[in-house]
Backbone:
C-alpha cells in the first residue's frame, strides 16, 4: 500500500467507512480504532481527536514505561489508548497499522507490538505527534513511517518528546495550517505528480 492509498483509507474511515468491510472495532474512553478487511490485507486504523475531551486527554503527558518488550518511555495518554486497542485486537494480525493525528500517537506504540509479532506488518502515520522519550538508540525495535506537513502544529508537540518512526516532510499545500487528512492527501498527490 502506498502512503496515498493509506491516507485515502483513513479519510474513508473518518467518513463512516462506507465501502469498507469492518472486522472489529474498539471505541470508547477516547479510543476509536477499526480493523478492516481490504485488498491490502487487514488494516487497523486509529482515528484522531473527534471531541473536545480528546484534546484534554492529549495534554496528559507524564512519561510511563511502554508496554511489551520495547522498554521505551511513552506519552501516558497515547500509551494508555494503545493498550486498550491492543487488548481488543491482539489476536488479529493486521498487515497495516495506520493513524492520523492523535491516532498516529496511538499507532506508534501499537505498531511496535504488531510489527514485532509479524515482520510483514507496516505502520504508516500522518500528522503524528511526538510521543516517545528521547534516549539511547533502541536497535532492533521496528519503526514506522511518519508523514508530516511542515505547517502542521501537531507534530511540533510536545517538544521534549520524539517520534518513533522515519519522518518524511511533505510539501506545503495550504497556509497557514494544514492538519486534516484531506490536506495530507493533497500533499501526497502533489508529491506524486
Residues:
Amino acid at each position: 500500500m502506498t502512503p496515498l492509498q493509506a491516507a485515502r483509507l483513513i479519510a474513508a474511515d473518518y467518513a463512516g467507512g462506507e465501502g469498507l468491510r469492518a472486522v472489529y472495532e474498539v471505541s470508547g474512553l477516547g479510543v476509536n480504532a477499526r480493523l478492516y478487511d481490504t485488498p491490502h490485507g487487514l488494516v487497523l486504523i486509529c482515528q484522531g481527536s473527534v471531541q473536545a475531551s480528546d484534546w484534554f486527554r492529549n495534554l496528559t503527558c507524564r512519561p510511563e514505561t511502554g508496554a511489551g518488550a520495547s522498554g521505551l518511555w511513552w506519552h501516558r495518554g497515547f500509551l494508555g489508548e494503545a493498550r486498550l486497542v491492543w487488548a481488543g485486537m491482539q489476536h488479529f494480525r493486521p498487515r497495516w497499522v495506520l493513524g492520523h493525528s492523535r491516532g498516529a500517537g496511538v499507532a506508534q506504540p501499537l505498531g511496535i507490538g504488531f510489527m514485532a509479532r509479524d515482520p510483514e506488518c507496516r505502520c504508516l502515520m500522518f500528522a503524528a505527534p511526538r510521543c516517545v522519550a528521547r534516549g539511547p538508540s533502541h536497535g532492533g525495535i521496528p519503526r514506522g513511517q511518519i508523514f508530516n506537513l511542515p505547517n502542521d502544529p501537531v507534530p511540533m508537540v510536545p517538544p521534549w518528546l520524539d517520534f518513533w518512526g522515519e519522518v518524511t516532510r511533505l510539501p506545503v499545500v495550504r497556509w497557514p495550517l494544514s492538519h486534516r487528512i484531506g490536506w495530507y492527501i493533497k500533499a501526497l498527490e502533489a508529491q506524486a505528480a
